[in-house]
Amino acid sequence: MTAEPRAVPETFAFTCGDCGHCWEATFQLMFFTDPTDTTGLTTQEYVDEDGKAIRSPLADAVCPKCDGRTVHVLEAGLAARARRAEHEPRPPHEHHEHRLHLPHRHTGPPEDDTR
Q: What are the Cα distances from residue 4, in Å, to 25, 30, 43, 106?
């Protein structure tokens, strides 16, 4: 393997399906190339913010708040927007009249749906 692997930072946003906690984490996606391999294939590995090699963060995500494993991956930046939305006051709701919407009744002969 090469002594100097290439690294690409990747940021993921997560939300916990158990407690609702949202967070983001940045990982280094490391690419290793074996110089003796004639196919030119690379091996990749994720490294977390603590420098620990891990499997895909998408497969092994654990909520840092409740240790839940029902974690969903979101678009990066979405977790921060969700946190802001939880803490910002909502604009006042415009008053409008609610009406019950019922399907329209057809008074003619039944339509032929045998096309």
A: 24, 10, 13, 73
The answer to whether position 97 is within a domain reads no
Residue 101 lies in a domain: no
Q: What is the pTM of this model?
A: 0.56
Beta bridge partners of 7: 30
Residue 51 predicted with pLDDT over 90: no
Write out the residue range of the structural domain in which residue 42 sits.
6-86
In the numeric block, which tokens belong to residue 86?
């939880």
The total number of structural domains in the chain stands at 1
Q: What is the mean pLDDT of the chain?
A: 78
DSSP 34-90: -TT-TT--EEEEEE-TTS-EES-TTTS---TTT--S-EEEE-TTHHHHHHHHHHSPP
Top mean-pLDDT range of 10-19, 81-90, 101-110: 10-19
